[in-house]
TrEMBL record:
Pfam families: PTSIIA_gutA. The modification Phosphohistidine is found at H43. GO terms for cellular component: cytoplasm. One of its GO terms (biological process) is phosphoenolpyruvate-dependent sugar phosphotransferase system. InterPro entries: PTS_IIA_glucitol/sorbitol-sp (IPR004716), PTS_IIA_glucitol/sorbitol_sf (IPR036665). It comes from Chelatococcus composti. It comes from the Bacteria. This is PTS system glucitol/sorbitol-specific IIA component. One of its GO terms (molecular function) is protein-N(PI)-phosphohistidine-sugar phosphotransferase activity. Coiled coil: none annotated.
Length: 127
């Protein structure tokens, strides 16, 4: 697999657990305004942003892999421009919002323990 994006979690906002239980994880780069940081996983990107992922590519959080099912039309530009993305673990193949990356259906209780400071988040293209 080819690495398209790698970032490391630095801080978990106090409201992240509630959103993750509903299948949504919001990322913002460090330095996000406090009102956004409350609901977000803050992170620090490492390296350059590669080509946009496609359905079938992989999101890896803390070593666990999730298949990407859909990508909103503005999602990858937001990742590149401001380190912001919404991960939706619903399994849908057509995003509800242009800024989200949809992933295989996964219970929030399975995602939440992966969201810890120091954990890597990677997006990889399948060969």
């Amino acid at each position: 697999m080819t690495l398209l994006y790698r970032t490391v979690i630095t801080t978990i906002g106090p409201d992240v657990a509630d959103l993750a239980e509903g299948g949504v994880v919001i990322l913002f780069a460090e330095g996000a305004p406090p009102e956004l940081a409350e609901v977000a996983v803050l992170h620090r990107a490492e390296g350059e942003v590669g080509a946009a992922p496609r359905p079938g590519d992989v999101l890896r959080i803390g070593g666990r892999e999730f298949s990407i099912t859909a990508i909103g039309e503005t999602a990858w530009k937001k990742v590149a421009d401001m380190g912001h993305v919404v991960f939706n673990f619903s399994g849908v193949v057509s995003p509800d919002r242009p800024g989200e990356i949809c992933l295989e259906a996964t219970e929030g209780a399975d995602v939440l323990p992966l969201l810890v400071p120091g954990a890597a988040i990677e997006i990889l293209a399948r060969a």
